[in-house]
Each structure stands twice: as structure tokens, then as C-alpha cells.
Amino acid sequence: MTLSAELEARFDKLLKSYPPGRQRSAMIPMLLYAQDELGSVTPELVEEVARRVGVEPLQVEEVMSYYSMLHRKPLGRYHVQICTNISCLLTGGEELWQHACKKLGIGHKEVTADGQVSLEEVECIGACSWAPALQVNYAFHHQMTPEKLDRLLDSLRKAQ
Amino acid sequence: MLYNEPSPHEVKVLTRRFGLENSASLDTYLATDGFKAFKKALEMTPEQIIEEVKISNLRGRGGAGFPAGLKWSFVPRNSPKPKYIVVNADESEPGTCKDRLLMENDPHQLIEGVLIAGLAVDAHAGYIYIRGEYRYLIEIMDRAIAEAYSCGYLGKNILGSNFHFDLYTHTGAGAYECGEESALLESLEGKRGVPRIRPPFPAVVGAFQCPTVLNNVETYCAVPAIIRDGGAAFAALGVPKAGGTKLTCLSGHINKPGVYELPLGFPVMKMIEEVGGGIRGGKKLKAFIPGGSSCPVLTAEECQDLTMDYDAMARKKTMLGSGGVVIMDEDTCMVRAALRIMRFYAHESCGWCIPCREGTTWIRKLLQRFHDGMGQRSDIALIGDLAKNMFGRTFCPLGDAAAMPTMSIVEKFYHEFEDHLDGKPCPYEKARQLVMA
Amino acid sequence: MADLVNLTIDGKPVQAPPGTLVIDAAKRAGIEVPAFCYYEGLSLQAACRMCLVEVEKMPKLMTSCTLPVAEGMVVRTETPTVAAARKSMLEFLLANHPLDCPVCDKGGECELQDMTFRYGAGESRFSENKVHKPEKQWSPVVFYDMPRCILCYRCVRICNEGMGVNALGIVNRGVVSEIAPNKQDHLECDECGMCIDICPVGALTSGAYRYHTRPWEMEHVGTICAHCADGCKTTLGVRNNQIIRGNNRDRSGINDEFLCVKGRYAFDFYNHPERLQSPLLKVDGKLEPVSWSQAIETVAKKFQQVREAGGKFAVVGSNHTSNEEDFYLQKFGRQVLGTGNIDHHRTGDVPALLDALSGKTGKLAVSADLYQRKAVLVVGADLALEHPFLSFQIRANYRHHQAHVYVVTPRPVREDAVAAVSLRDACADVFGPLESLRAKLAAEPELVIVFGDVVKGEAVRRLVDFGESLGIPVKYVALVDYSNSRGAVDMGLLPDAGGLALPEMLAAGDLDAFWVVGANPLKAGELRSRSAFVVVQDMFLTETARAADVVLPAACAYEKNGTVTNVCGEVQKLKKALGTMGTKPDLEIIGLIAREMGAAPVMGPWTAEKVFDEIRRSVRGYDIPVPVVAAGGAAQTMPVNGRIPLDGRPDLIRSARDSLFTSGTLGRYSKVLNSVVESRNNR
Ligand SMILES: Cc1cc2nc3c(=O)[nH]c(=O)nc-3n(C[C@H](O)[C@H](O)[C@H](O)COP(=O)(O)O)c2cc1C
Ligand code: SF4
Ligand code: SF4
Ligand code: SF4
Ligand code: SF4
Ligand code: FES
Ligand code: FES
Q: Domain residues for B322?
């Protein structure tokens, strides 16, 4: 499988970051960084990563299916992750979640028909003091309100 | 970047550079005593370093509060194996958002803390395990690490000494359980985040089967100050048996939520009223989580005269935990709070052991049914019972973490469960919606 | 012993060596602590929490499966707290368990069922919906029913650690965790069924056994696997004269619980539709069914004619028949037919090894040595495919005793994974690589050398010279192929000096009678003596049987009593599990021919016990303790002394190189093996 030059460079660096014979350590970072680029963890990627770190594909499957950020199905170009855990719950995270679902007409881990936006109800993302919070891909959005969310979703739907 | 105004009650030790221009840069760091402690430590013996940390009464800031100096002293000095420093930056305990700020605003302080730990146990490599969601922090840390390498603070012969140290970041990929130290090590080795059988503890058999010091970000970040200004000075900031300050994350129904560095032993009510500006909307306090969702919940009464430190919390049968303080006002539905917390643990249970894997999901289903108004009286006791059956019997503390808040809520807010009986709609729903509107 | 640890378990003083786990110490003291995830010999999990016990001075209940004994420790395994904890674990488990015991294959021998009964957690307080998932078929042999799975990880460990196959893993997390096969939706593995057998519940079931019967409806017969030379004990579950399943759960034999796919499932050749159930006689070029008496009479008459005419006989014996049958056959050939033209398909140079070891004692390894000795050297054999049990032993030795394993093979083998050194002998000369290992091997405290058919004739002597020159105690195993290949050699199914060997029998144009018992030499060869009278005893109409004048339907190994000798010279007992109508054991067939020829007085009675007595008296090395064998144990043939006659024909030695899924003629008629091979080819 051919990967972008950037990803190749990152893989190389990762494989050198661990003690000799411990290349398996690079598996999870490799999967996550590759997913960022490919959109999902494809069966080919599983094989590729298995080969590069020197394990069987089953061992990669075991790992990838454990971690909640790794997905088999492609997500939207903008993956909106709304926290509804305790601090966010207390400050309206649940309502934000409902609002987003209604507005986009999609649910948990679903993608809009145009593939532009996907939604996920997530656990605490470490923004509790600035709750309710969400992430769009890796970017944090703090102290959200339904209005701010509306504006955000509108812009994401149009964004390139 | 800071996300909230500082409070005049803060004692800024770990956060002293927060708010400085380019606080994350090496230049700023060096201009403000950066690497002074490390230089000092280069002149000290490992025993002296560990002794200083012991004197500081620094206790682990990741949740369990284990004395850091003591933990470092467990690393077998004469082991022929390489030793490792691992930083727990998995920060996933609901209510907790402090390590983020430490890495974002002062990454070199963490690097310096790690280097000193490396000197103390003769380790020459370290890994910062950062939760996957914190990608921007990985980038910040990577930049800081690169900067440190280029200026000779990492790599071979650091500052002309014969000390070598390599530091790497390592991303997680979504798993609360990987904050648990042994599961973290498994994850670092490219495996499922399932805890290891202990003993042996990481200090003896840790990363890559080698002796390993594993601490929370905040714990390492306290080390430069301890070495620089002396353990005693740090200890004096806190209370007996728990030195220094603690980054406290206020969240929930509070006027000024935010992360504040407060000396250990800070009074809880003062914290709520003066640091946090009181309960939102002038409401009354109903419940208080002192250090992340794993802690048993306290009632408003229990918070009177209580101070923020390990032993005081233990006397109230709860924990200081990670410093994630969650404030719940009088309109909060405790059944719903219990449900949300259990939903989290059911989602995050690694599934390895029976009681946690099955218990969390079963209790979650019961609570859901209860909250939906379809509970029966006998379910209340069953919820408490199942939590008790999990407690103390799981393979790792996640099971306890799930059981403790549940048990405390059933015990202390029993009547709220009764209020949901007989198909009654959640009595707090309406009030809450008014708040939201 | 001075350094035993003293502790108290349930008030009983107990002593155990340091490092013993409390669960094992308790077991040795007769106290059974319940366990799902703990399994002796496999890595520790601490996952099921069933084994929790109270330990004085410890604040929490402790898992006795991970807790080493300590001096003065006070353990209680049956307090109310402990019982309540166990009950709650079962309650948690049953929350998501389908409780379909009445239709579950494991019903009646399910560990979960037993525990629930014992701790009374049967009543469910769980009223939510259970996770439902359809059962999956992963291979012709392995089925997985996720809701029944209690995630004890025994299957994963036996496959990874025990088998070295790594075909099973754990996917997902939390309550939806499940076991997964290595190829997404199916397994590509040894199909050994170890995972199925070790599963404490009915989550893994076998295609062969599923829904066929209930455990308590079977009779259990312990006998020896009919396939390879490793000689695994298998306990056949028999009902209504049908073998329902094979396993070795009682850990009674040399193989403990181990069985490969053949031992566990490939017993099914016995009821293949093409099984011969009547003697056949060639009439006008066609084989027609005849009565036993007519068939025996025909054979006896013809044999008598040939003998009286001073004609030429040739006798081919089997790799699968019992020692008694082999002995009886060669005796018949030599004493009644007066011929030295006796042979069988030779698969390993046992005679050369015995010869090279002349005058030395204690030089032949038993299968236990592969598990116990500090170092093992494998020369020219792919053990995982050809000798699954020996391979299993070596892996277990590596896991439990950190044995040093050395491998010299033409191709990569599974043993590489546990090997200290693996060398590929591309040029087929094993001595080059061996010499390069000399220093390392000489530094070992002891060694077992296992060699395949690449080492034969003079090379065996060289290998023994090499081993003996290391200056450490060395034991040897000469690999042979089939369930009684070793017995065939020992019993003398070899030509006399000047007698014809198998290829020469086929090539000779002047044979008058050709008698083949349980072999198929015409599969690849041709009999030049077109006019010879050909008698074949077999289970199936093989290529050789088709060419016969008389075909006598033989019983298989599971249908007779007797003994067999495994690759390591361990003699074990075959126990009759069933009978197939119309067939007779070869011993009886030979006996009937002898009687018909009036040779009964020379041959003696044809009961297995009587013949075995004679073997003990007359075959060198077989004066073994009868009670050991009679009780189902294994007794090694005695050390060898004196020169063994060699015909100097190592060229005749050729392993059939059966893989895991082939087994000579038997394999051709096993549905299970064929379905495995087919499903692999279709992927
Ligand atoms: C389920 C679970 C989750 C945890 N998560 C974290 C975490 O996110 N960050 C952390 O520093 N410690 C976490 N811990 C605590 C660690 O196991 C460990 O005690 C800590 O990192 C040690 O560092 P310290 O002594 O500096 O606190 C967690 C523990 C458990 C049981
Ligand atoms: S308590 Fe058990 S199932 Fe839960 S996270 Fe720990 S090991 Fe996994
Ligand atoms: S049948 Fe044997 S090889 Fe196949 S998965 Fe089960 S244990 Fe592994
Ligand atoms: S399939 Fe059986 S052996 Fe495997 S984990 Fe499940 S219950 Fe245990
Ligand atoms: S290893 Fe050989 S003897 Fe053992 S079960 Fe398999 S075929 Fe039979
Ligand atoms: S609870 Fe939502 S970010 Fe922590
Ligand atoms: S047997 Fe000890 S935890 Fe399973």
C-alpha cells in the first residue's frame, strides 16, 4: 500500500522511537496518524501496519477494535465530537448533542449524506472547566451554546 | 493560552509562567529559572534527588496520591536493564483538565521534571503518553522537545555532562483505561489497554519489561520547583503529609469554572465561594465531587469544614483524586448524574474482568431504566448491591471507580431514586431545562 | 526440604515450594478453589475473579491464582464473604449468558453450570435485554457462540502458547469484547480443537460433535490415536456403536490434554461409506462379495499350494496394525510360509539408530523428555506438521522451563519461534550446520536430538558420533510416520538377509503369492508378477486392494485390542471401542488363515494378550511391565544392546511427509480432514 511521503516519514520516525525489537509500540500511533489521512482504518491499512511492526493482522485487529478513536468506517470530513460527560452534562452538553443530531439529521457515529460532517457523542475530552465542550477533528471548542453550535455547524457544512 | 482568569487565591508554583508571553518557548523558560533545577540536580547524587522529593511530600497527582519520592526509590538501582521515565498525560478522568494546561503553557517544565527523574533513577529515555484527543498538545510537546534537543537539553551529553536522555511523545487513541498505569504501559507497547497483574509494579517491571518511573504530568512538573527551591519549601506550601499545591479544576454549576493552583489544604467552601465565585444562579450546593468522577460524591453538609487534601478527603471516605472538582446545584438529578457516570465506566471498561465488564453495563441499564421512570423499588437496592459486588473485587481500580460514586449516590441520595418511582417523570428535569433556557 | 513455605489454608497446615500459587497449594491440600481463567500451564489472567479468597492481614479478597504462597500466610477459601463474592461473579456472568443449557453441547459438563449449582446463583435479578449475537462458524471444525463466552481467554492462550498458532484474539472492549479468528470471519489454523476442549462453557463447539449427543449418554474408551507415530492417548466417546467424539480431558496419557486435529476428529474414517464390510473374491476379473469362510478357505488353499510347490511369497505389513498383528504376520510369513520376503513401508531409520547405540543404555528419549530436558535439537523435520505432539511438548518445555531449542531444517518451521538458534540446511547436509552449533550444544547440560528421515544409514551413525562427542548426556528420537511404524520395525516386518525388500517385491516378476496387510504399495507402484495370487487386508478398496484376488475387510485401530509402539518406543494399549459389521481385526484374519492351513499349533492362539506374552518373551526390548500397559500407561521398550541386523538399504527409508491434514489412506477417508483441506483450498 502506498502512503503519502509525510506519513512515510512519520512511520519511519515512529519505528525509530522505541527500543530495538519493540517496533510494535508504534502500532497505535501509526494507525491513528494513518487514519487521519485515509479517513478510516481499512483492511489494507491493518495488513500494512501489521507487516511494518512485525505482527499478525489479527493482533492489529485486537488493538484497533479496542481504541475508541480508531474507526473502520470513514467519518465526515469534519468529525464533531460532543462531550456529554458529567461536567458537560451539568452545563448543557446533552442539549447540545440533541441539537446537533436534530440539526444535521444524523446520530451517533453517523455521517451527513455529503460526507461533510459526522457526529459522535464522546466521553470527557479534558475541557471540563470550559464546558460544555466539543472537538471538531482535533480542535477544541469551549463553552459552547446552541447558538455557537449552530454557527459552527453551518460553517462546517460549507467549509472546504 | 489560558481559558479562565486566574484567582488571587492561587499560589503559583507550577503555573508561574502561565500568562507570560511565549510561555511555551525555551527562551521564556530559560529566562525564568528554567533548567536551573536540572543543573542543580546534575551536581546531586540520585539518592539526594530522591531524598529531596521525599522531603517535599509530593504525592502523585494522577489520582492515587502515592508519595512520588518513595515510588522513585523502588526502582532497582543495580538492575542491568535500561530504565524508563513514563509521563502519564492520558488525562481522561471526567472533571479533569489540568495536565493539558501544564503542557500547553509550560512544556519545558515537564521536560525538566522528566530529566530530573531520569537522573534520580539512571534512566536515559522517556515517553510522554498523551491521550489521542490532545493532538495539539502532542504538537506543542514535540516542538518543545525539538527545541530542547537543539539547545542541548536533550540528547547526548546534556549540558556537557555525561548524562544522555531521549524523550518521545506517544499518542493514545481513545481509552480512559490507558490512564491506569499498567494498561498505559501495555498501550505503549502497542497492545490493548488491559492492565497487568501486579506485583511486579512498574518501578520493577514497567515499560518494555524494564524498571520504570511512571507519574502524572503534574507530578513531574512539581519536581523542578522542588529541586530548585528545596523540598522543604514545597512541603511548607501544603499540609503535613501532602506538600505543595494542586491544580484544581472547577467545573459544573459554578460561576467561575476554571483551573486554579491552590495550596493543598485549601478549604472547600472557600474554594467554591471565593475562587469559583459561588454556585451559578445563586443556587444551593447539592453535591460535590472532589477529584474526578471516580470519587464518592459528597453532600453539601459534608463539604462544610472540609479541606482539599488527601487525608481530609479520606476521612470523609472519598478522595482528592485528580483535582477534578465537580459542583452540582440543588436542581441536579442525582440519578441522572449516577447514570451518566456509569455510562462512562461501562463505555471505558476494558472488559478484562467479569465484575467490571458485566457490572458496569448491568448497572448502567438499571439506572437508565430507572431514570426513564420504569424503575422498581427493588432496583434501588439492586443497584447498590451490584456496585458493592464490584467494589474491591475487580482486576484494576476502574471497577472501584465505577462502584464508588454509585454506592455513594445510592446511599446519600436514596430519596431521589424514590422520586423516580411509579413512572414519575424526572422531578429535576424541568428545573434544569429552565436553567438551560 | 528445608525451603518449603508454611501456610494455613482453611485451617490446614500446608507446605509448598516458594513461588507456588495459593490456588495450587490449596489443590494439593485437597481444597478446590473454583477458577475459570486460571489454567495450569498457561499464563495468568486474574480475569474471572472466581478464585478470590480471604487472606489474613490483606484488606481485600485476593485472587489465589496470582498470589504466591508466603510464610505464615493464613488463607480461607470458603468463608461467607468468599462465597458471596463467587456468587456475585456468577450472577454477573449469567446476566449476559443465554442459559440455553438444554440445547448446549456443554450441558452436563459445563463449568459454569457446575459453579452455578454450587454457589446458587441461578436465580436472575437481571431483567434487561441480553446481548444477542448469532453463532458463527469459523472453520469446518470450530464454531463460536459469543453470548455463551465468559471471556476466560483459555482458548486464546492454548492457541497462542500451547499450539504456537496464534489464531485467536480478543477484539472490541468492555461488554462487547469477544474472541475473534485470525482471518476476519474465519480461522486458518491447525484445527486441533484444543480451544474447543479447553473452553469451560459451550462457547466454542466442534463441527464434528455438535448436537450429536449429551455427554452422559456416551461410553468413554481410552485408546491410542490411529494416525501419527506420536501415540497420543484419546478417549473416545462412544454411543450406539458410533464414535461421537475424541478428546483427552482426563489427561490420562503421555499427551496430557493434547490432541491434534487427527486425534480429536479424524476418527471418522471408520464409518466412511466406502468402508469394506464383506470379503471380496475376484471372479472373472471382478471383485464379488463372498462369505468369510469362503474367502479364508480360498486364501488358505492357495497359500498351501504355493508353499507345497515351493513357490515364492512376499509379505507386506502395515504401519498401522498392532504389535501383535505385526508379530503374528511376520511369524506366519517366516514359520508357516517359509519366506524371508517381508517388509513394510519404512519411514525412519530406527534400526540404524538402535545399531549405533549398541552397548549404550538410557539413550532413547521418551516423549516426556522433550518436555523436561534442558535442550532439544530438531534435525530435518517439520514437527508442527508431522509430529504435532512432539512439537507441543517442545513448546511447553520452552514456556515452562525455558528450554533451549535448536533447529536445523530445510525450511522455516514453527519451532523457530521458540528456538535459540535456527539454521536452514539448504544443501541438505545437516552436518555443516550441526558443527556450527557444536560449541553451543556442548555447553548445554543435556540434550535430546530428534531427527527425521534425512538422517539415515551411515548418517545416523555420524549423528550419534556427533551427539556422543558433545560430552553431555544425549538422548535420541528417530522419527517415523505412523501409529505403529515403530512397532513394525521392532516386530520384524523387515526382510531376512537375502530376502526381498518392498520395491524388489514389486519389481520381481516371479512372485506366486503377494500378501499385503494394511498397506497400499500399489498406490504409486506396480506389481510386475501379474500372475501372483494377491491377498489384501484393508479397510478400503485401495489401489492395492483393487488388484487383489481376495480382499479381506479389516477392523481399524479403534475396533481392536492390542498394543502399539510410538515414535519414542513407548508401548501403549489399544482398547476396542466399537465394532464394524463384517470386518475382523487383522490378527483374527491371520489366525483364521493359519487355522485353515492347519498351522494353528505353530502360530499359537490369536488373542492379543497371548501374542503380547510371546512378544515380551521373544522381541528384544519388549520385556516391559505388563501392569503399566494394561492400566493404560506407556512403557518404553527396554534399552538396546547388541548389533541390530541392517540390510544396508537406507534408500528405502522415506517418510510420507503427511501434513496435519493428511494421514495416508486413513486421511483419504476422513470427512473432517477432507473438509478442512477443501475449505482451505476454497479460500
Ligand atoms: C482507571 C484509571 C484511570 C487513570 N487515569 C489516569 C490519568 O488519566 N492520568 C493519570 O495521571 N493517572 C491516572 N490514573 C492513575 C495511574 O494509574 C497512576 O496511579 C498515576 O499515573 C501515577 O502517577 P502519580 O503517582 O504521579 O499520580 C488512573 C488510574 C485508573 C485506575
Ligand atoms: S476493572 Fe477489570 S474490566 Fe474494568 S477496566 Fe479494570 S481490568 Fe478492565
Ligand atoms: S483449533 Fe487449535 S489451532 Fe485452531 S484456533 Fe483452536 S486452538 Fe488454535
Ligand atoms: S470461547 Fe470459551 S475458552 Fe474462549 S474465552 Fe470464551 S469461554 Fe473462554
Ligand atoms: S499428534 Fe499424532 S498421535 Fe497425537 S493426536 Fe495427532 S495424529 Fe494422533
Ligand atoms: S466532562 Fe466534558 S470535557 Fe470533561
Ligand atoms: S481463576 Fe483467578 S481470577 Fe480467574
A: 245-329
Residues B56 and B200 occupy one common structural domain:
yes
Residues of C in contact with A123 (CB under 8 A): none
Identify whether residues B73 and B187 lie together within a single domain.
Answer: yes
What is the atom index within ligand 3 of the atom nearest the CA of C193?
Answer: 1
**Does B323 reach chain A within 8 Å, measured CB to CB?**
no
| Same structural domain, B118 and B183 | yes
Residues B391 and B324 in one domain: no
In this structure, the answer to whether residues B117 and B260 fall within a common structural domain is no
- Kindly give the parts of chain C with pLDDT less than 50: 642
Please give the average per-residue pLDDT across B102-123, as a whole number: 98
What sign has the CA pseudo-torsion B417, B420, B426, B431? negative
Nearest CA to ligand 2 atom 8: B350
Closest Cα in chain A, distance from residue C48 (Å): 20
Residues 6+ apart with CB under 8 A from B85: B114, B117, B118, B121, B123, B125, B126, B127, B212, B213
* C243 bridge partner residues: C238
pLDDT score, position C211: 64
C45, C60, C174: residue with CB nearest B349: C174
Give the residue whose CA is nearest to atom 5 of ligand 3: C167
Cα–Cα distances (Å) from A128 to A89, B254, B260, C486, in that order, read 10, 12, 13, 74
Cis-peptide, bond into residue B200, ω within 30° of zero: yes
Separation between Cα atoms, residue C641 and residue C50, nearest integer Å:
55
Q: Give the domain CATH number at B157.
A: 3.40.50.11540
The interface predicted TM-score of the complex, written ipTM, equals 0.98
Does residue A82 have its Cβ closer than 6 Å to ligand 6? no
The residue of chain A with its CA nearest to that of B99 is A126
Domains of chain A, CATH where assigned:
5-66 (1.10.10.1590), 78-158 (3.40.30.10)
Does residue B358 lie in a domain region?
Answer: yes
The verdict on B38 and B109 lying in the same domain is yes
- In angstroms, rounded to a whole number, what is the distance separating the alpha carbons of residues B61 and A83? 24
Q: Cα(B113)–Cα(B87) distance, rounded to whole angstroms?
A: 10
Ligand 4 pocket member C112 (CB < 6 A): no
The whole-number pLDDT of residue B2 equals 78
| Cβ contact C52–B393 (<8 Å) | yes
User: In the listed set B237, B257, B278, which residue is the last one of a domain according to the structure?
Assistant: B237
Is residue B215 domain-shared with residue B251, that is, in the same domain? no
Q: What is the pLDDT of residues B343-398, one digit of tens each?
A: 999 999 999 999 999 999 999 999 999 988 889 999 999 999 999 999 999 999 99
Domain boundary (B237, B270, B297) is at: B237
B274: domain CATH number is: 3.10.20.600
The atom number, within ligand 5, closest to the CA of C387 reads: 1
- Which residues, 6 or more positions from B385, have their beta carbon under 8 angstroms from its beta carbon? none
A22-51 pLDDT, tens digit each: 999 999 999 999 999 999 999 999 999 999
pLDDT at B429 over 80: no
- State whether B251 and B338 are in the same domain: no
Percent with pLDDT over 70 in chain B: 98
Q: Is residue B18 part of a domain?
A: no
| Pocket of ligand 4 contains residue C149 by CB under 6 Å | yes
Cβ of A125 below 6 Å from ligand 6:
yes
CB contact under 8 A, A127 and B97: yes
- Cβ distance C31 to C9 under 8 Å? yes
Per-residue model confidence as pLDDT tens digits over C490-521: 999 999 989 999 999 999 999 999 999 999 99
pTM across the whole model? 0.95
Domains and their CATH numbers in chain C: 5-93 (3.10.20.740), 111-271 (3.30.70.20), 280-344+485-658 (3.40.50.740), 350-478 (3.40.228.10)
Measured CB to CB, residues of chain A less than 8 Å from chain C are 43, 56-59, 61-62, 65-66
Longest dimension (CA), chain A: 52
DSSP letters spanning C506-554? HH-S--SEEEEES--GGGT---S-TTSEEEEEESS--HHHHT-SEEEEB
Is C47's CB within 8 Å of B353's CB? yes
How many folded domains does chain B comprise?
Answer: 3
